[in-house]
Write a structure and sequence with these properties.
Blueprint lengths: L4 E3 L5 E6 L10 H7 L3 E6 L17 H14 L4 E6 L1 H12 L4 E7 L6 H12 L3 H4 L3 H6 L3 E2 L2 H9 L9 H11 E3 L5 E3 L3 H10 L5 H6 L7 E6 L7 H10 L4 E5 L6 H4 L1 H14 L2
Parallel strand pairs: 2-3, 2-4, 4-5, 5-9, 9-10
Antiparallel strand pairs: 1-3, 6-8, 7-8
Helix pairs in contact: 1-13, 2-3, 7-8
């Protein structure tokens, strides 16, 4: 199949964006619109958003990187620039290690990269068959509301949630409209299948030791932007990355979490644009 995508602009150097688990590309509208001012931006849809895709086909995250490389070949967009958030950042990093010649430069936004000890622990949990039981985000995903009648009411409810405290109203509205797909009766439903979201959670990390082994050999210029309050890509992990790949540029943004591209789209855009221009 041809990998689906959204185009946000038609002029400039090609830039491919990879979304996070549970966050369709439309959630990033404030950032993507800014990037589209200087780049030919396309947002690739990852497997959970493909029609009739089966979560059980995914055993680990390596196919997500292979999908990106296939997409670049289909679009004839290499070498070029690429940005990935969370899961998308890991898919991008692995792809850059596999085929570095396809990229001018890459930007990872709070990637889901954990220290080796955490990886080994999770591999053991997964091998014992306890992944769905012990992953801290699986229960929340399964209990998430999936049907909505009024997006304004949904926005007002989310506005009160602490997890969105660093997002302004424009960013939060983009998120609400990004996660909701119209139903036939005038209501809305989650665009991102919960079955896929939980599958992504439980199959992550399983092959990530190859990322740590490959980092010292990475030849592609890399920018990593993390939220200063992130509980995913922590400061300690950033220091480990710097030791293994001292050429990488790492930046922490204040008043930001794992959702840094939604919380700080202006600053994230400025950092990405500046870094890519330096590595044109």
């Amino acid at each position: 199949m041809t990998i689906p995508h959204f185009d946000y602009s038609s002029k400039g150097d090609p830039l491919v964006f990879l979304h996070a688990n549970g966050y369709p590309p439309e959630c990033y509208r404030p950032l993507l619109e800014r990037l589209a001012g200087g780049y030919r931006v396309s947002a690739m849809l990852q497997r959970p958003l493909w029609p009739e895709s089966d979560p059980q086909d995914l055993q680990d995250w390596r196919p997500l990187s292979e999908d990106l490389l296939q997409y670049l070949q289909e679009r004839d967009r290499s070498p070029g620039y690429c940005v990935g958030h969370s899961m998308g950042g890991i898919a991008l990093l692995r792809a850059a290690l596999i085929q570095p010649e396809r990229f001018h430069a890459i930007a990872l936004l709070d990637p889901v990269l954990f220290p080796p000890l955490t990886i080994w622990i999770w591999k053991a949990v997964h091998a014992l068959g306890f992944g769905y039981r012990f992953h801290p985000l699986v229960a929340a995903a399964r209990n998430r509301r999936r049907q909505f009648d009024d997006l304004e009411r949904l926005f007002q409810g989310y506005r009160r949630k602490p997890v969105f405290k660093y997002m302004d109203d424009d960013a939060l509205r983009a998120y609400v409209h990004g996660i909701a797909c119209p139903r036939g009766d005038g209501g809305y439903k989650l665009c991102y299948p919960v079955e896929w979201e939980t599958r992504i959670y439980t199959t992550g990390l399983l092959r990530d030791m190859e990322l740590w082994r490959g980092l010292p050999e990475l030849s592609v210029p890399m920018l990593i932007i993390r939220g200063a309050h992130s509980n995913t890509f922590r400061a300690s992990t950033a220091r480990m990355v710097s030791k293994r790949q001292p050429r990488a540029r790492l930046v922490a943004l204040k008043l930001a979490t794992h959702l840094v591209p939604l919380e700080r789209p202006i600053e994230v855009h400025t950092l990405i644009h500046s870094f890519f221009k330096e590595n044109a």
